[in-house]
Amino acid sequence: MTAPEISNVRVRFAPSPTGYLHIGGVRTALFNWLFARHHGGKFILRVDDTDQARNVSDALQPIMDGFKWLGIDWDEGPEVGGPHAPYFQSQRSDIYAAAVEKLLADGSAYKDYSRPEEFAAERQAAEKEKRQFIYSRSWMAKTAADAARFEAEGREAVVRLKLPRTGQCEFQDMVRGAMSFAWAGEQDHVIQRKDGSCLYHLTNVVDDAAFEISHVIRAIEHLPNTPRQIFIARSLGLELPKYAHLPFVAEPGSSNKLSKRKLDKYLKNRDFKVLYDHGERIAKQIGFSAAPETFNPVIIDFYREIGFLPDAILNYLLLLGWSLDDHTEDFSREAMIRDFGLDRINKSPASFDPQKLTAFQSRYMWRLTLDQRLEMVLPYLEKAGLITTPVNEDSRSKVKQILEAANERLSCAGDILDYQEFFLTDEAIEYEEKAFRKRLVNANTQRELLKKLRKPLAETPEYSAHAIEALLRSFVEQEETGLGMIVHALRVALTGKAVGFGLFEILAILGKQSCMTRIDRAIKLAEEAASSNE
RNA sequence: GGCUCCUUCGUCUAGUGGUUAGGACUCGAGAUUUUCAUUCUCGCAACAGGAGUUCAAUUCUCCUAGGAGUCACCA
User: Straight-line distance from CA A329 to C1' B51, in Å?
Assistant: First the structure.
């Protein structure tokens, strides 16, 4: 498929300020952004706040923060301005009012004086008779005299589109091909309220033209809106953008559209729940509290808070409805921009898979250098109060050691908090009950071995993982036993846990002093428990 | 219900008029390993159904079924 020369690409993402950035919105924005960058065009952020009573700047901030964090930058819009400012619809009323006047003047729209209940009654009657509702236009003001008469009755007018009632609206969609809608299926949509404020379809079309938007790339739920928007644009004599309607992002394990309102339902999905719990665990430890409605895997802030990588998220989202070929999965930003195109977007919905997202995240995490991981992880330890702020050199080198020992065990930055035992005081170690019993209380031989090991361990001059390994190996050889006999007891004694990093590394990180204290304490507690058992 | 759309492993997807229908995630088994994780090897698993066109259909056409989106003085 050879793309025609596309020059002067201008695309936009137009969120309404809701206070959070939804994962599906991110994907739509990403596709727009990639398309712009691929073609050397402009990506514009426009704020669709025509109907917001709330504080727009408060509700917009999380959205912009989300994009900034993800590295999706906009060329025109809030904060950066641009040649078509303002980029807030709430500040563009005059432009919309002029457009309405123009539509009124040429008969593409009309003043409708029906009372809401009268209009509703017509609709209900149609529904009752199971026929398609078509407004009678009984209260349409055809002339100034009509208007005066209606107003004398105390009526107020909204402005409705006067849509054609025959024929087809045909257009080309870059994802879905030739589209055709019967005009008869359209309603006379309201474009301006009584108070003069304008509605979405009008503002959207007017602004897309004003901003010289070349391609409208948006979610499929807007497809049915397209004919009326085309009608507005044509009536206004505006040039039509090209349309590309993206399949929506579906719920995990279902083909329903992903929504922020169905958290309870998603929590019943095993994979979603795992991710959610993961995040909650981290949030709790760093003292971050937010309502589940704004802190969950559907909202982008969730990932930033627990230490995901923007590139991993983008890479995952890119592949939700788009692919390059049968094998390429890893896309750096440069590669995405280079390879992205509308022609390989899928038509069917793609469901959000928390496991696959996590898999991408783990992979990206592991690709970072040790120092990069260190910088990511440090803030979590600070927030959890496990290291002091500012971070001193001792902490840094210790955390570095931990990260080396951790290997690929951290899937995101917040996971460092799973290894608190390296930061707690020796007396604060809590033992997993089952492991403690199995490896120390009900394991006389192993406990005795541990006691015996104490001396050589205390006396060894070198306390590196390497030296400790040599020491332990020769120790078990002397005792004519296997490593397994000492490893588990020692791990539980030192960390309180049954599983964890390589044991020799654990010893080295803890240091001789801590190890001695912890071994002594564990033996003492185990012996007490053992004797009280008898 | 009207309109519009969608349908390849559980999930994301590749693909072709003739393929053992490919990859990734997940899952399972084995190997390695001091545990866990990693790593390695192997494996499970899909063309919604039915007609038609054709020597040949997962691929083209039609129908059916299922699923979805949307039907505001929201965006």
Answer: 39
CA distances from A433 to A93, A271, A281, A498, A526 (A): 67, 28, 21, 10, 11
> CA distances (Å), A89 to each of A15, A51, A206, in order?
11, 9, 10
- Alpha-carbon gap, residue A13 to A64, rounded angstroms: 12
Q: What is the pLDDT of residues A454-490, one digit of tens each?
A: 999 999 999 999 999 999 999 998 988 889 889 999 9
Summary count for chain A: helices (H), strands (E): 20, 11
Instruction: Using the CA of A176, give the nucleotide whose C1' is nearest.
Output: B5
A485 touches strand B (CB under 7 A): no
This prediction has a pTM of 0.94
Query: A16 beta carbon < 7 A from strand B?
Result: yes
Band (A529; pLDDT cuts 50, 70, 90): confident
Strand B contacts in A 130-159 (CB under 7 A): 130, 132, 158
List, in order, residues 6 or more apart from A299 with CB less than 8 Å away.
A20, A21, A22, A23, A260
Place of tokens 């390879």: A339
Confirm if A170 and A116 have CB atoms less than 8 A apart: no
**Sign of the dihedral defined by the CA atoms of residues A372, A375, A380, A386, in that order:** positive
The residues of A annotated as belonging to the active site are 260
- A505 nearest nucleotide via C1' and CA: B34
Tokens of A103: 């539509």
